[in-house]
Amino acid sequence: MIFNKDTAEKTAELLLQINAIKLNPENPFTWASGWKSPIYCDNRLILSFPSIRNYVRDEFAKNIEKQFGKPDVIAGVATGAIGVGILVAESLGLPFVYVRPEPKKHGRQNQVEGFLQKGQNVVVVEDLISTGKSSLLAVEALRNEGANVKGMAAVFTYGFGVAEENFKEANVDLFTLSNYENLLDLAVQKQYITEDQQSTLQEWSVSPSTWGQE
User: Any idea where the Phosphoribosyltransferase domain is (predicted)?
Assistant: First the structure.
C-alpha cells in the first residue's frame, strides 16, 4: 500500500528522472532469479542526488511517524537500504541498526548490527520489494532479537501478488513511497513510454516468472 497518491507520483517521477528505474519492454533485463523483466530498479542511485535523497528522507520520516507512530529504532535492510535508513533515523532523531542477509561467519556472528534492546518498537526501511522474501527475513531476524516490528516502509514495490501474500502471512504491514501502478501511469503521462508499452509492462506484472519465456 502506498502512503499517499501525491507522494507515489512524485517519487515515481524522480526515480525515472535519475534512471533509478529503467523501462525497456523491447529489450528486457534478466534478473538474478532468471526472470525476464521489462523494468530494472536501482534505488541506490537516490543517494547520489542530494535533493532527491532529501525528499525521500523527509517523506519517509513524515509518513512513518504518521502511519506507525514514532518507533524506538529504525532498521535498514542490508545493503540497499542502509544509506536511506540512516537518513530517516537521523531525521527522526532515532537510533539505527541494520540487518544482514545472514549472520556473520566470524566474530560475534551478528545478523542485526547495532544496539537493539528486547521490546523496542522498530520500523524497517527497505529500498525495493519484489517477492518480499529477503525483506521478511530481516523482519524475522529482528523478531528473533526480541524487537517489536511495527511495519516496513519501502521506496518502491512491484506489487506482485506473491509479495502481498508473503507480508500477510508474516503479519507485517507494508507501506511504500511509490509502486508499479503509479509508475506506469506517470510514465505514460510524461511520455517515457507509450500506451502500447504500458500494456506490455502490465502483462509482465501479472506473471513475472513466466513472462518472456516463450
Answer: 59-174
Q: What is the pLDDT of residues 108-134, one digit of tens each?
A: 678 999 999 999 999 999 999 999 999
Q: Residue 128: name the closest of 43, 36, 37 by CA.
A: 43
Which of these CATH numbers, 3.90.1150.10, 3.30.530.20, 3.40.50.300, 3.40.50.2020, describes 5-203? 3.40.50.2020
Residue 88 near residue 74, CB atoms below 8 Å? yes
Q: Is 87 annotated as a binding residue?
A: no
The rounded percent of the chain whose pLDDT value lies above 70 is: 97
C-alpha cell read off for 20: 533509478
CA distance 57 to 78: 17
Is 53 marked within a binding site? no
107 labeled binding residue: no
On whether 72 is known to bind a ligand per the annotation, the reply is no
Q: Which residues contact 145 (CB under 8 A, 6 or more apart)?
A: 112, 116, 118
